[in-house]
Write a structure and sequence with these properties.
Elements (H helix, E strand, L loop, with lengths): L5 E7 L3 E7 L31 H14 L5 E5 L10 H11 L3 E6 L7 H7 L4 E6 L4 H7 L8 H14 L3 E8 L7 H14 L3 E6 L14 H8 L7 E2 L15 H10 L4 H8 L3 H14 L2 E6 L2 E6 L1
Parallel strand pairs: 2-3, 3-4, 4-5, 5-6, 6-7, 7-8
Antiparallel strand pairs: 1-2, 9-10
Helix pairs in contact: 1-2, 2-3, 9-10
Bound molecules: iron/sulfur cluster.
């Protein structure tokens, strides 16, 4: 069966084999982060509604559990912010009641100031929140939020959620050179992180193709130095390592093959290969590092070109 909302399982260094669940149409997000691997948003969206009917996702999950059902995690992430789908709690409740596989919610945290979102999110086994700003100005520079989203609400929502959530909470701090990689700025982020009190802090950087060409990755040496500012030190999770996705029809050779014929965005490659954009994005760092591919900004979008 070809699934509409499920993808993978894809390998993840932190979460093993992870089955992805896409809860929104492409790039439905309250933020427009400069480092987003989905590309630049045409517009941001803060409204919560049933973008995709939860019962259709649950029907696919039922089928997958009956016919495959092997993964370490079922992850709510995909093509936008999963908590904008007002039915995301139904999906988490279904996973909790029907399988021993743990659920992972990956969120940008912008809806956690709402009590109903915190209640639904608390059904996940693990919640991972991405952050990278320390005030409204840095938030606007790095994450370019919707006008209905404020930094103060974001931080308060994350603190309230920590107080209510007994599961594992991870904070992923996304670092971009020239934006939030100065130690003095990172120390301000450390202060917020302490106030929130996650179980784990992870540092990531733009090793995957980003929405903006100037969202530049920070080198591993500097990442390790920044990690030491946290107590205990943060884990650096950015990786340039080669990936292999077992059982996937996508690989670096097929991507290169397409790019030799014409330059494409990551989304266009995903459409051609019938894959999820997250699968394509796992291979692009390897091709960029090897110099087989380069990125070019064209008409406001990032295209990849075979060299
Ligand atoms: S990185 Fe995540 S939170 Fe930021 S714009 Fe992309 S999908 Fe939204």
């Amino acid at each position: 069966m070809k699934y509409k909302y499920l993808f993978g399982p894809v390998p993840s260094r932190r979460f093993g084999r992870s089955l992805g669940v896409d809860l929104t149409p492409y790039k439905t997000c309250s933020l427009n982060c400069i480092f987003c691997q989905l590309g630049r948003s045409k517009h941001t969206i803060a409204e919560r509604k049933e973008y995709v009917p939860p019962e259709e996702i649950i029907a696919e999950l039922k089928h997958w559990l009956e016919h495959d059902g092997k993964a370490d995690f079922i992850t709510l992430s995909g093509s936008g912010e999963p908590t904008l789908n007002s039915g995301f709690g139904d999906i988490l409740a279904f996973i909790k009641d029907n399988t021993d596989i743990r659920s992972l919610l990956m969120t940008n945290g912008t809806t956690l100031h709402l009590p109903e979102v915190r209640k639904a999110a608390a059904l996940a086994s693990v919640v991972k929140i991405s952050m990278g700003a320390w005030d409204q100005t840095s938030f606007e520079k790095l994450n370019r939020p919707d006008s209905d989203v404020s930094f103060n609400d974001l931080v308060q929502g994350e603190k309230d959620f920590r107080n209510e959530f007994a599961g594992e909470l991870r904070l992923e701090v996304f670092v971009v050179d020239g934006v939030n990689a100065a130690p003095a700025d990172m120390k301000k982020i450390v202060t917020f992180v302490k106030e929130i009190g996650p179980d784990k802090v992870q540092l990531n950087t733009a090793v995957r193709p980003a929405a903006e060409a100037d969202a530049v990755a920070v080198g591993s040496e500097k990442m390790n130095e920044l990690a030491l500012l946290f107590e205990p030190p943060a884990e650096v999770i950015a990786s340039f390592k080669k990936v292999t996705i077992e059982g996937s029809d996508v690989d670096a050779v097929r991507i290169l093959d397409i790019l030799r014929r014409r330059p494409c965005t990551a989304k266009q490659m995903a459409d051609v290969l019938g894959a999820h954009i997250n699968e394509i994005s796992k291979y692009l760092p390897e091709l960029l590092t090897a110099g087989s591919v380069q990125r070019e900004q064209r008409g406001g979008e990032v295209f990849f070109v075979a060299t």
